[in-house]
């Protein structure tokens, strides 16, 4: 099979990815072997390729928004999956199941958690393996290229929305409007929220308006109303102070990314007083995934997917880095 590995982390212009050819992997006793049909291109892949995240697996195959079909499985896998079943592989791919975080339902905080495309090879290739317990059933009514972004961008956006504690009918601010944001906005709108978008790209602003948000403005501009909640999707720490300043009393800002540049100094009176809250989002649980994918099955989401061939993975990451991707990018593997 062919695919892409992170040869040596570095700036995307230095081409840190390299193509490879290797045998199709064998599934372990508890794993599924999946023929990759589509793999989403996530900003986390960019952080892995550029070295913003520490190396967990040298020469890792990136990609954790995988839609494919089951072609084989290990001898300890039960009868939940059959040949040809369409399944999804997401970011979270393993936890210990024994620690206090796992036992209380916070498996995303497990110290032994493992991740697709970081700890183990991911989907920038033709075949991938995944523990059967962490494979996802996918909703009907979507094309493969529409489903792929749901498996991280959608799930993380959903968890970020939960962490932002948006009240019913509340006013939500979204900072940055890429793959995850354009899905989270639709979930919030379906729940009756009033959504305001702050982003730099004209095409992204146009997409936001087409989806039905109440207003769009520049990334550092103030929204027209005080916000009950906000989510920061852009990995830009300098946006934290204006986002916190835009919150109404008791408001919450959730930072959705796995990586963020340094946050400037926050003022207590200007940014935190009156019980404003700043919180992070760390990965997701399988329960988050189940809830979101069930929601997507009941509410048809518009997924803006920009398609690239598998051979164009480095170009897709470059376009993502340079802000040329509106919505999400996906690699068509077969």
TrEMBL record:
Residues 28-140 form the Alcohol dehydrogenase-like N-terminal domain. It catalyses: a secondary alcohol + NAD(+) = a ketone + NADH + H(+); a primary alcohol + NAD(+) = an aldehyde + NADH + H(+). One of its GO terms (molecular function) is oxidoreductase activity. Pfam families: ADH_N. It is an enzyme of class 1 (oxidoreductase). Its cofactor is Zn(2+). The keyword Oxidoreductase applies. Keywords: Metal-binding, Oxidoreductase, Zinc. It comes from the Bacteria. Gene3D superfamilies: Medium-chain alcohol dehydrogenases, catalytic domain, NAD(P)-binding Rossmann-like Domain. Its EC number is 1.1.1.1. The keyword Phosphoprotein does not apply. Belongs to the zinc-containing alcohol dehydrogenase family. This is alcohol dehydrogenase. It comes from Rhodococcus gannanensis.
């Amino acid at each position: 099979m062919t695919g892409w590995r992170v040869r040596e982390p570095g700036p995307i212009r230095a081409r840190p990815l390299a193509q490879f050819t290797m045998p199709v992997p064998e599934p372990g006793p508890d794993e599924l072997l999946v023929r990759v049909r589509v793999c989403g291109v996530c900003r986390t892949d960019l952080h892995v390729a550029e070295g913003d995240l520490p190396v967990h697996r040298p020469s890792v195959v990136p990609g954790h928004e995988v839609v494919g079909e089951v072609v084989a499985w290990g001898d300890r896998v039960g009868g939940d999956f059959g040949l040809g079943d369409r399944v999804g592989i997401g970011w979270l791919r393993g936890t210990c199941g024994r620690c206090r975080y796992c036992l209380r339902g916070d498996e995303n905080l497990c110290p032994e958690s493992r991740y697709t495309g970081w700890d183990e090879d991911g989907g920038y290739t033709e075949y991938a393996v995944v523990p059967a317990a962490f494979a996802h059933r996918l909703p009907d009514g979507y094309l493969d290229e529409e489903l792929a972004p749901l498996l991280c961008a959608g799930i993380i956006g959903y968890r970020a929305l939960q962490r932002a504690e948006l009240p019913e009918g509340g006013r939500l601010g979204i900072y940055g409007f890429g793959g995850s944001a354009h899905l989270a906005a639709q979930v919030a709108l379906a729940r009756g929220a009033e959504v305001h978008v702050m982003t730099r790209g004209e095409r992204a602003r146009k997409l936001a308006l087409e989806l039905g948000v109440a207003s769009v403005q520049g990334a550092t501009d103030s929204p027209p109303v005080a916000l009950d909640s906000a989510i920061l999707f852009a990995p830009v720490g300098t946006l934290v102070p204006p986002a916190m300043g835009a919150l109404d009393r008791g408001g919450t800002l959730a930072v959705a990314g796995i990586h963020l540049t340094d946050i400037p100094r926050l003022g207590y009176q200007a940014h935190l007083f009156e019980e404003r809250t700043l919180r992070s989002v760390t990965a997701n649980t399988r329960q988050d995934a189940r809830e979101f994918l069930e929601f997507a099955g009941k509410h048809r989401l518009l997924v803006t997917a920009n398609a690239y061939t598998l051979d164009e993975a480095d170009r897709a990451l470059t376009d993502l880095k340079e802000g040329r991707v509106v919505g999400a990018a996906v690699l068509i593997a077969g």
